[in-house]
TrEMBL record:
Protein name: Translocon at the inner envelope membrane of chloroplasts 55-II
Keywords linked to the UniProt accession: 2Fe-2S, Chloroplast, Iron, Iron-sulfur, Membrane, Metal-binding, Plastid, Transit peptide, Transmembrane, Transmembrane helix
GO cellular component: a single term: chloroplast
One Pfam family this sequence matches: PaO
Domain of life: Eukaryota
MF (Gene Ontology): 2 iron, 2 sulfur cluster binding; chlorophyllide a oxygenase activity; metal ion binding
Domain Rieske per the UniProt entry, residue ranges: 80-185
Natural source organism: Perilla frutescens var. hirtella
Length: 535
């Protein structure tokens, strides 16, 4: 399609320099000049786009300029962030997590209460997430200091029995809340937690509502993840035949209707343009809520006149530069079909993982280009009204609040990270290569090299259900291997023909079981490669 055929999403004036100068973190960029060649086809097409832009009424331009200048007060610390699924918090070990590269550790104390500390020991700054739980206390494995409750240090092995533990030997704590099966963290130590900011999802409280919840660690920025999740246009193409709903022949123009814009986000209806005229058609309703919550809801009335509620909930935690963690929850009030009940939960989790794997290469490269170009998305994207409305709305929202974030890429503005990305160190050389080739086994001994492209490290280690399936499959595979060897030996040693047949038949069944276990393990530890790229 020629560029001249594409309609720009909107004609937006840059915010005034006086307004932007009020905050040094917001940077204004002008467009880079095009190639001066007079007959360059791109230049001709852009001239046509400019002609269309000039026809836009002055009133519309002024109104949108005022909207972009409406920078709102925002502090990323004064927000609740989705930390983890409550059911997946480990019972016997601390869990290290990050929010905008701020390191925290989550664990259950002796009473089963979930606690959250800063992930560093006040003694010599060792990571507490590398420690262990000892009688309900969190112990630093460097020198054995133990902490409990609100971060109080209760044991220092190197002190004499008569010595008093210093009052400063305590660890900083974070306020957390368990709401609707999710652990939320309040990042500010200056402002008391605002409980009204914890999101509440009405559909999840409806009678008969069932959901499947998964968690995924992803190697790109949370803003790119949110872009991807609020982009329905890519689903038929990128996820073609991944399930029964995505088909590339269904790709079509979409309609979008923004019904709400605030400093906390935006909301609106959307659907396929050709479906708008369908009688009793109810479109999807999307809502983005600061700092990182996206939900897509739909109501469907069945042939019996009963209304059913469907929800796709995406909680996108900004782990840090170039990394994010997603809690995704799909659910509805409709009774699931019998066929769906036959599939185990771990299998459905693997299919969900596959969906995010299919986009991972695109989004990682997008992240790389944004960091390399260092310009607002307006200068890089070609947003279409019929596919990219929510993406443009999100980046414009970033223009309003980005000054209160550690870094951001807005539609017209950006602020780059002030500190370099945190890099976790892994084993080097041969050990790292060998470990990465066998991620589910943990490599040699206790060493391992986390591989963000591998499903085991992105999902399984964060899911108790899938982890138990992998462990059970390994155990069964070993047991069946031993049984296969024994039955084969018996088939060789015994003389009776019917016993030989029985032993060989048993061996065949054991080998089939081994193959099933191997397949389950492979599904949970795969490095995703698109089918058309396989050689």
């Amino acid at each position: 399609m020629a560029l001249s055929q594409l309609q720009p999403f909107s004609i937006i004036a840059f915010p005034s320099r006086q307004k932007l100068a009020e905050n040094s973190r917001i940077t204004l960029f002008s467009r880079r000049p095009l190639n001066p060649c007079q007959h360059h086809p791109l230049k001709k097409n852009l001239q046509k786009l400019s002609a269309v832009a000039e026809e836009t009424s002055a009133a519309a331009v002024i109104a949108e300029e005022k909207e972009q200048e409406a920078i709102v007060r925002y502090d990323w610390c004064e927000e609740w962030y989705p930390l983890y699924l409550t059911k997946n918090v480990p019972d016997d070990a601390p869990l290290g997590l990050t929010v905008f590269d701020k390191q925290v550790v989550l664990f259950r104390d002796g009473e089963g209460v979930v606690r959250c500390y800063e992930d560093r020991c006040p003694h010599r700054l060792a990571k507490l997430s590398e420690g262990q739980l000892f009688n309900g206390r969190l112990e630093c494995l460097y020198h054995g200091w133990q902490f409990e409750g609100n971060g109080k240090c209760v044991k220092i092995p190197q002190l004499s029995e008569s010595a008093k533990i210093p009052e400063s030997a305590c660890v900083k704590t974070y306020e957390i809340k368990d709401s609707q099966g999710v652990i939320w963290i309040w990042m500010s130590h200056k402002t008391p937690p605002n409980l009204e900011k914890i999101p509440w999802f009405e559909n999840f409280e409806r009678p008969g509502f069932r959901d499947i919840s998964t968690i995924h660690e992803l190697p790109y920025d949370h803003s790119i993840l949110l872009e991807n999740l609020m982009d329905p246009a890519h689903v038929p193409i990128s996820h073609d035949r991944t399930d029964f709903t995505a088909k590339r022949e269904d790709a079509a123009a979409l309609f979008f209707e923004v019904t709400e814009r605030t400093g906390r986000g935006f909301a609106g209806r959307w659907g396929r343009e050709k479906d708008r005229s369908t009688p009793n058609y109810i479109p999807n309703f999307l809502r983005f809520e600061a700092p990182c919550v996206l939900q897509n809801n739909r109501e469907i009335i069945d042939k019996n006149g009963e209304k059913h509620y469907f929800s796709g909930l995406f909680l996108c935690r900004p782990s840090g530069q170039g990394k994010s963690m997603l809690i995704v929850r799909f659910g509805n009030t409709r009774k699931p079909p019998l066929l769906l009940k036959l599939f185990p939960q771990w299998y459905l989790h693997q299919n969900a993982s596959k969906v995010f794997e299919q986009d991972m290469g695109f989004l990682s490269s997008q992240n790389e280009i944004l960091m390399k170009e260092k310009v607002p998305t307006r200068q890089l994207y070609i947003n279409l009204r019929s596919s990219d409305t929510w993406v443009a709305e999100y980046r414009k929202w970033m223009d309003k609040v980005g000054h209160g974030m550690p870094y951001h890429f807005g539609h017209n503005t950006i602020s780059l990270p002030e500190t370099p990305a945190v890099v976790e160190h892994a084993p080097a050389g041969f050990v790292a290569n060998f470990s990465a080739s066998q991620p589910a086994k943990g490599g040699i001994g206790s060493l391992h090299a986390p591989n963000p492209a591998n499903r085991y490290f992105r999902h399984v280690i964060h899911c108790k259900g899938c982890m138990s399936v992998v462990k059970a499959s390994h155990a069964w595979k070993k047991a069946l291997s031993v049984a296969a060897v024994i039955s084969t030996a018996l088939a060789i040693l015994i003389s009776g023909r019917q016993w030989k047949v029985a032993a060989l038949l048993s061996t065949s069944l054991f080998l089939a079981g081994i193959q099933i276990c191997s397949t389950i393990i492979a599904m949970n530890t795969t490095n995703f490669i698109r089918t058309h790229r396989r050689l």
